[in-house]
Amino acid sequence: MGYAVETFDLTRRFGARTAVDGLSIRVEPGRILGLVGPDGAGKSTTIRLLTAAIPPSSGRALVAGRDIVRDPEGVRARVGYVAQHFALYGDLTVAENLAFYADVFGVPEAARIRRTAELLAFSRLAEHSDRLADDLSGGMKRKLALACALIHRPEVLFLDEPTAGVDPISRRDLWRILGGLLGEGLTIVLSTAYMDEADRCHRLAFLAEGRLVAAGLPDELRTLVSARLYEVRAQPLALARELTKGVAGIEIVQLLGDRLRVFAEPDAAPAECLRSALAAGGAAAVDVREVAPSMEDVFVALRSRRGLDG
Amino acid sequence: MNRVWAIVRKEFIQIVRDPRTLAIILAMPVMQLVLLGYAMNTIVDHIGAVVSDQSMDERSRALVQAFASTSYFEVVGYVGGPDEARRAVDRGDAKVAFIIPPDFSANLRAGRPGQVQMLIDGSDPNIAQTALFGGDAVARARSAELLAASLQRAGGPGGLAMPIDLRPTVLYNPSLESVNFMIPGLVGMILQMQGFILTAFAIVRERERGTLEQLIVTPIKPWELMLGKILPYVFIAFVNVGVVLAVGLLWFRIEFVGSLALLLALSVVFLLGALGVGLLISTVSRTQTQAMQTAVFIMLPSFILSGFFFPREAMPALIYYLSYLVPLTYFLQIIRGIILKGSVLGDLWAQVIPLAVFGALVFGVSAIRFRKSME
User: Fold this and answer.
1) Is B208's Cβ below 8 Å from some Cβ in A?
2) ipTM
3) Which of A217, A253, B43, B109 has its CA 20 to 30 A from that of B257?
4) For domain B47-153, which architecture applies?
């Protein structure tokens, strides 16, 4: 069986600027791909290319088995898209928006009634169905957009920064919904700037300046961080920081509110040295433990490595 | 077609919920109807006049009576001397002053011309011109009467008729009511304005609110979107036209001489061009405000040049030829022809063909541009 999404050297230029540069990625059906990267990395443009909203400057991509250049309409009929900013009709009600998109996607009458009821239920918008979309909260608007993107049972769902600016409860809600959708066989591609969300994806693609910097499973990517990582708690923290810096083999010390994150050279094993240095220096309640790198660390490591490579 | 109807339905819902659009659709035509029907009367009469009669006898009074009995003038006051008369005009108490000198009657009796001075406020050329001609006409007619009477007294044949007897027959609008002229023009104005603005708004609104981004990722095709956006406004424009014609016929009692079917058919041709321009405007505007500005920028010269307010015959040669580029010019001739003169298609080819060509061209170009702007 093929991939749900497959790109071959996908490139898109806007005048002199190259927004997406030779992108080659793959997503298996029923998985979540996270596009991660800073602003201007090309995440939104990649999504617009894959939903056949804009054509590529060069390269190819197959989405749900259809070629985005040769069969853009076939692609559009099989994908759902949730934009970064609210793109539905504020002066239409929840129900009217759903009805409109059902019409536009040609969902047959019988299926439409059932589907609309399902979508309203799982997004908990049923009791608001006669409210104008403009009058919904940010999280509810997002869920409505999601419902409208799913009304035609797409094979691949694209979400552009779906939880940006959404409160934590709604964020969790949205992820719960997305998880449920995977169970129904949907493939999801989303872009996110939240590193903790990156951890929830099956596969990740790190983008920077339009280029793919790294791709793979989160655990694979964690190995890219060659440094060994420790979390240090001690009182007082400021003193602990100074002491830690002096220990051999320590590369970076980050101060994070209630603890230190310490990056050590790959071959070092400074745990004991750290404990003794801290105790000797007069710090109390010392706790040193090794931890796995988070996606944020991976990201930072990738960027600094790129910086070194020039 | 289903998708087109989806867009049409959505547009109607949005129209009903948008006060700005509703105002343009409902309030503006009514307002224009009232303004043009009542306020805009280009025929000037009952021009206020003051009289300074220093002769004060039967002959001078007869002359003043001659002036006052026409509908051109309305005597609003009698003043003392020429200076007072001048001041009255300066102050704006009257637009015209008749100054009859003390020796008026004496001159007439002696067979010399009796001079009468007429002061005219020239700031509004329309009024001034009417006053000029009116005063001149009355003076000549009075002179002729006096001549005929003195001939008769001198022993000439009795009952001498005027040597030249002009018999005017006013065809097509015999009552010379301005409103008969204005109402057809108003139909053209509404079609053009609503065709331009509402269509442009409808499309730009999607771009402005970002909903176009979502629409692009659906199976909808550019032509379906275009058609769906245009149809509601075609419907609305014709409803408005119907209302204007109904009010014109029933309230203002204009006379509709020609064929309503022909009028509607040719209105569609004109509307095509207007919609095309609206589409074009939508492809160059990012916001509804911009669309409005662009539309006004195009419409104002179009109204002025088309002969709607000011007769084209009065325009200098270069501007006159420029007016041939304005579709409204042709449509006004068509609609005035049909309503006031009962023109048939055979009379109107010189107007219909340019209109049809313009409509097809503009609509075609704008449809192509629209499709490109969707990508």
Assistant:
1) no
2) 0.80
3) B43
4) 3-Layer(aba) Sandwich (3.40)
